Amino acid sequence: MIFLSTLLLSTLLTIALVPLFRRLAIRFSVVDQPSPRKVHSVPIPRAGGVAMALGAFIPVLFQTEIDPFLRALVVSATVIVVFGVMDDMKGLNFKIKMAAQTVAALIMIFYGGVKIASLGMLLPDGFLLPDWIAVPLTLVFMVGVINAINLSDGLDGLAGGICLLIFLCIGYLGYRSEDMIIALVAIGVVGSIFGFLRFNTYPATLFMGDAGSQFLGLVAVSLSIKLTQGNTPLSRLLPLILLGFPILDTMSVMLERIAHGRSPFMADKNHFHHKLMLRGLYHSEAVMLIYFIQAILVVSAFFLRFYSEWVLLLSYLIFSSLILLGFFLTEKSGWQLKRFSFIDKSIKGRLSFLKERQLLIVFSFRLLQMALPAILFTGCFLAVDIPSYLAWFAVGASLILLLTLIFYRKKVGAVLRVALYLLIPFVVYLSSENGATLIGITVEQIYNFSFGAIAFLAILTLKFTRRTSGFRVTPMDFLILFFALVVPNIPDPHFVGYHMGLVAAKIIVLFFTFDVLMGELRNNHTWLCLNTMGALMVVGVKGFCGL
Q1: What's CA 188's distance to the chain center, in Å?
Q2: Burial of 360 (0-12, 13-18, 19+ CB in 10 A)
Q3: Euclidean distance between CA atoms 70 and 58, whole angstroms
Q4: Does the pLDDT value for residue 519 go beyond 80?
Q5: Residue 138 CA, distance from chain mean position
Q6: Which residue of 44, 374, 401, 474 has the lowest C-beta tally within 10 Å?
Q7: DSSP 3-state assignment of 482?
Q8: Are the C-beta atoms of residues 310 and 295 closer than 8 Å to each other?
């Protein structure tokens, strides 16, 4: 339960802190101004990084023992965030930024025990690098990754989405390696990114700033090195696969600048995401494509985690060559993505027709409206060992909902949202613990798959809605689908009966789809309210009767 509570607390804490820091950023003019090399056209606050750092670390620090590694990580992250905020406010010289990054990395090396001492099968068996090689190598790699993640933060939701996929893999591998600190920190960061992406997905209303991107880079490289060094069967080159896309982007841009006689630290529009947009991709399309590439790397890292370092190195070189060759050929030929009139007229025209006639949204919305309460009821009936405090909460919440529905309908939406956000985590957790033994593994797999189905219905509903506010279809929906479809189906027999990743995936999908449904209901919450009251009463009765 500690992993689940960490995920939820970090998500909700980040969501709660973001508005506060956004107001402070506006008050003190900590905003990102538009410029020719940037894609936004209005000033946007850059204060998400502090909210993310606090949201990620506070739940972890309150729920686990602080060992030297975690203590060093908090101190080094504080250094990074403080100097990052100063950079967001005043624009520091790159030498000062590099000095701060170096200090943060050295703290992790000498006090956190983070050091690249082994390269596995790339060197003779059992050979460990001496400190005079290991320390500089680790320092260069850590500072390089921090800057790589920082420089990848060029489009709305890009750096956050890339890091979300990275931390999902790190958290899972940390859990499987029984390293609870790595798993907890990774899950805390995942939650904070989910909370932040609510405000940063295109079109963004908030940026993480240098404080946020450097924080993510520091934590990602520290956890990945700690995870793969020491007594572990994991490949020593796994961090290269996990962090490979931002590293390749940064290296290629810097080499390109040097080749043209410019400083490697001079900002320009030659990053991969800029080049994709120059080839004709829209903002959201470029982000989605990079998410897809990063997802391939994360899945590859999972399947190659026990392979020889030579296999991982060769795989990464092939991947890098294909990416660079693709960009070279498209630039050389002047290729542009064509928006075919046939597609615009036949396919998009028909989609527009469906949207105008509201045929598809009526189908997807009605199906979602029936399926979502059905899944909630199923979870309530499957829940076992319901504690008495949850039973009392369920009965009390149902009565409050009833009174609100009768006497104060304007507040039904707010009360309903609170009730669902408190009920869903417990129901999913209690129903997942013994679901396989109650209904059989085949039926359980169908039940698990239904979460991916309702996520798809929610995204389809968003795509064809006429609403101009609230949830809209965004690249973050790719992350939701990835989380919902991939995490529950990881081929690992250790997690057949009870899988925390599955629980987290279900909770996030239910939160997402309930928010979509409530937005589409347009304050007409009676149907959903009655269903929620019924689900609450099921939990209450089962809890009191010991069913």
Answers
A1: 11
A2: middle
A3: 12
A4: no
A5: 26
A6: 374
A7: helix
A8: no
Read off the pLDDT of residues 79-105 as tens digits, 9 standing for 90 and up: 999 998 888 888 778 889 899 999 999
Q: Which residue's structure tokens are 């209904």?
A: 439
Is residue 226 a contact partner of residue 73, using CB atoms and an 8 Å limit?
no
Distance CA 153, CA 83 (A): 17
Helix (H) or strand (E) holding 31: strand 31-32
Q: Which two tokens stand for residue 198?
A: 């609510």
**Residue 237 token pair:** 């080159």
186-215 pLDDT, tens digit per residue, is: 989 998 888 887 776 666 677 888 888 999
Within 8 A by CB and 6+ apart from 349, the residues are: none
The first and second tokens of residue 463, run together, are 């795509």
DSSP for 138-150 reads: HHHHHHHHHHHHH
Encoded tokens for 525: 């919450």
The amino acid present at 490, given as its one-letter code, is: I
Phi and psi torsions of 31, nearest 5°:
-130, 155
Q: Which of these, 189, 177, 185, 191, lies nearest to 229 by C-alpha position?
A: 177
CA distance 131 to 111: 14
> What totals of helices (H) and strands (E) does the chain contain, helices first?
23, 2
Per the CB < 8 A criterion, the answer to whether 384 and 377 are in contact is: no
Find residue 491's DSSP bridge partners.
none
